[in-house]
Write a structure and sequence with these properties.
Strand order of the largest sheet: 1-2
Shape: elongated
CATH superfamily of one domain: Ankyrin repeat-containing domain
Structural class: mainly alpha
Strand content: under 5%
CATH topology of one domain: Serine Threonine Protein Phosphatase 5, Tetratricopeptide repeat
Distance between the termini: 52 Å
Radius of gyration: 29 Å
Keywords: ANK repeat, TPR repeat
Pfam families: Ank_2, Ank_3
Length: 438
């Protein structure tokens, strides 16, 4: 496992002030000595700094440079003799954070993989649950890829579900693709489905193509069908992760769940993966009506021809125009389900047409599918951020879901872009009333 390394304090000072330490402030040389020197050298510098005669011990304990004390520096480098002297003889506070990054001595030790120093601090009262803004000591050790440090922290009772607005430890391990660390956390009963960010640990592992992490999470009971905005099997097929596809299919992942653009995993496998990927998905995929030869060879040939057609602008333009007309005809007949199906086919032709997402969002809304309507409206806003109607579609979906405050804010933005829209203004005032009253 590759360890992630930060610039150390002495290196940072050298970059800041040059290599000639004789030209540095005494406090800076003092900090470097705490990092790499011995106790005797530390005392000698402190003696020369003790201009007011307060004593070497007082000077050592109270000297810092840019908010970093000798203890922080020694813990970062793992200089155990200096750490012992500072804590056992001078009684320096093992939980006092620096003023530069708000890191405690234990965080400096853990983030740099200095396990002996971390053990010493823990034995002398260091708070291992300390959280720096968005991350804990456990998060830091995971980020740097330090399994031994993580093993120690877990053995000392550090929770693997530590509160953080950043992400759960398991999310971070999956995001970084650290199967050894992921296994440790799962063995300590980490919830494979808990997440703070939009995506679950399984979805993060797939996004980063970490098949070992995918397998561990599935074995631990991760939801193999994901969320409404992320489909694990589709992502595995799109990335050509054969072993992940096998694992997900065996765990019961739905092979008939399309991605945002309406593409089934088997279609993605035919375009981006291998023949083997298509063979794995074929027995668990329902026949696609638009594929005339429903066989492994027939699917691959059909997708290949679709890809070729997408490379011809004229074919794409005509195909999309025909599909939009068919969808519009179905919508006029109030056949909203068929209209949504045809709009999905059109999105396969052009993934980046915001109007198609807008139209499909309206179909979903008419069918009472609020969440699907919102998903499409959000995509429409992403593609057309200056189009007022995109915000109207999103606001309407939010109103259906009774998320009145979000609807009010969304429609307010829409009116800024299109102040003449009567339908949006009407919905805006309805949202305002519900927001205020509810």
């Amino acid at each position: 496992m590759r360890r992630r390394r930060d610039v150390q304090i002495p290196e940072a000072l050298e970059l800041l002030m040059g290599k000639d330490q004789d030209k540095w402030p005494e406090e800076a040389r003092f900090i470097v000595t705490a990092s790499y020197g011995d106790v005797r050298s530390l005392k000698e510098i402190a003696k020369s700094m003790d201009k007011k005669g307060k004593g070497i011990e007082v000077t050592v304990a109270n000297t810092n440079f840019v908010g970093t004390s000798a203890l922080h520096a020694a813990c970062e480098s793992g200089n155990l003799p200096v750490i012992r002297y500072l804590v056992e003889e001078l009684n320096m506070d093992v939980n006092k954070a620096d003023t530069m990054r708000d890191f405690t001595p234990a965080m400096h030790a853990a983030f740099n993989g200095n396990l002996p120093a971390l053990r010493f601090l823990a034995d002398h009262g260091a708070n291992l649950q300390y959280a720096h803004k968005k991350i804990t000591i456990l998060h830091g050790a995971i980020e740097k890829g330090q399994p031994e440090t993580i093993k120690f922290l877990l053995s000392r009772g550090v929770r693997d579900d530590s509160e953080s607005s950043f992400m759960t430890p398991l999310e971070l391990a999956a995001f970084r693709g650290y199967p050894i660390i992921l296994k440790m956390l799962l063995e300590h009963a980490a919830d494979p489905n808990k997440h703070i960010l939009q995506f679950t640990p399984l979805e993060m592992a797939l996004s980063n193509s970490s098949v070992p992490c995918v397998k561990l999470l599935v074995q631990a009971g991760a939801d193999v069908n994901g969320s409404r905005s992320f489909h694990p099997l589709a992502k595995a097929a799109e990335k050509g992760l054969t072993e992940a596809i096998k694992c997900l299919v065996e765990a019961g992942a739905n092979a008939n769940a399309p991605d945002t653009f309406g593409r089934l995993p088997i279609e993605l496998a035919a375009e981006y993966g291998t023949w083997e990927d298509v063979e794995i998905l074929f027995p668990v995929t329902s026949a696609i009506p638009t594929v005339p030869d429903w066989s492994v060879h027939g699917i691959i040939s059909h997708v290949y021809m679709e890809v070729l057609e997408r490379e011809d602008p004229e074919i794409v333009k005509k195909r999309k125009s025909d599909l939009k007309r068919q969808a519009g005809d179905a919508f006029k007949k109030q056949d909203y389900l068929n209209a949504s199906v045809v709009y999905t086919q059109a999105l396969k032709v052009d993934h980046f047409d915001g109007i198609l997402f807008s139209n499909r969002s309206l179909c979903w809304l008419r069918l009472g599918e609020g969440e699907k309507a919102l998903d499409d409206a959000v995509k429409c806003v992403e593609l057309c951020p200056k189009w007022g109607k995109a915000y109207y579609r999103k606001g309407a979906a939010l109103m259906h879901l009774k998320e009145y405050e979000s609807a009010y804010n969304t429609l307010s933005r829409g009116l800024e872009l299109d102040p003449e829209s009567e339908e949006m203004e009407k919905l805006f005032w309805i949202a305002r009333v519900y927001f205020v009253c509810c």
